[in-house]
């Protein structure tokens, strides 16, 4: 039996995934969470094989959750299911430690296939993500500027683009305001920008938010 834990801040999305997996005799949803705090508690007390994770969570993002799981050497395998397009986030999520990536607009049958593949220890990517991986190998210089950002730098960019102040970002990431300011300065330098407004426009134009 594949034990599945869901983490998405939308209850209707969680219900849709739960109903899809309910038809599978080899799967059982063992818990649901809507944010990182709830997820952390579930992971502490609930045994699971696969975590279905959204990127856009309140507080800590899915990318931050992936970083935390990697740091704690968690054995749970993660399938990211997100509304964000694959060309923007799939490869970054895989690099961050995810074992698969699907768009929420995909076929429910594909979700079932992905959960089974990830549970068996395999990586799961769609044909389009596979093509992107091949393209990156053949033309590594074609990557976007934001592909060169570290995970913390990307997290800082997303939070700035969502309108958060540096003090708020520092609190959410459990960092000092000075450290967040350093990340912001690196963002501006790497992206060739000058202020928060331009960072926000960049994130929107590149469909990062």
pLDDT below 50 for ≥5 consecutive residues: which ranges?
none
Task: Give me the side-by-side strand order of the main sheet.
Answer: 2-1-3-4-5
Number of domains: 2
Could you tell me how far the N terminus lies from the C terminus, measured between alpha carbons in angstroms? 36 Å
Could you give a short account of the major beta sheet?
5 strands, parallel
Total strands:
5
> Regarding quaternary structure, how should these chains be classified?
single chain
How many distinct helices?
Answer: 10
Order of helices and strands: EHEHEHEHEHHHHHH
CATH architecture of the largest domain: 3-Layer(aba) Sandwich
- Residues in helix, %: 40-55%
Rg is 17 Å
GO molecular function: DNA binding
Pfam families: GerE, Response_reg
Protein name: DNA-binding NarL/FixJ family response regulator
Keywords: DNA-binding, Phosphoprotein, Transcription, Transcription regulation
């Amino acid at each position: 039996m594949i034990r599945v834990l869901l983490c998405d801040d939308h209850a209707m999305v969680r219900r849709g995934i739960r109903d899809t997996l309910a038809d599978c005799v080899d799967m059982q949803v063992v818990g649901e969470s809507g944010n990182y705090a709830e997820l952390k508690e579930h992971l502490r007390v609930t045994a699971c094989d696969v975590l279905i994770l959204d990127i856009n969570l309140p507080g800590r993002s899915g990318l931050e959750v992936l970083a935390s799981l990697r740091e704690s050497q968690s054995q749970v395998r993660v399938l990211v299911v997100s509304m964000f397009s694959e060309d923007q986030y799939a490869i970054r999520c895989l690099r961050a430690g995810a074992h698969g990536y699907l768009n929420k607009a995909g076929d429910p049958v594909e979700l079932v296939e992905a959960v089974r593949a990830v549970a068996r220890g395999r990586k799961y990517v769609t044909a389009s993500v596979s093509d992107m991986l091949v393209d990156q190998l053949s033309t590594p210089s074609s990557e976007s500027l934001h592909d060169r950002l570290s995970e913390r730098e990307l997290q800082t960019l997303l939070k700035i683009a969502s309108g958060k102040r540096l003090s708020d970002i520092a609190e959410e990431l459990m960092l000092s305001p000075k450290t967040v300011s350093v990340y912001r300065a690196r963002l501006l330098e790497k992206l060739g920008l000058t202020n928060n407004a331009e960072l926000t426009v960049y994130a929107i134009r590149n469909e990062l938010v």
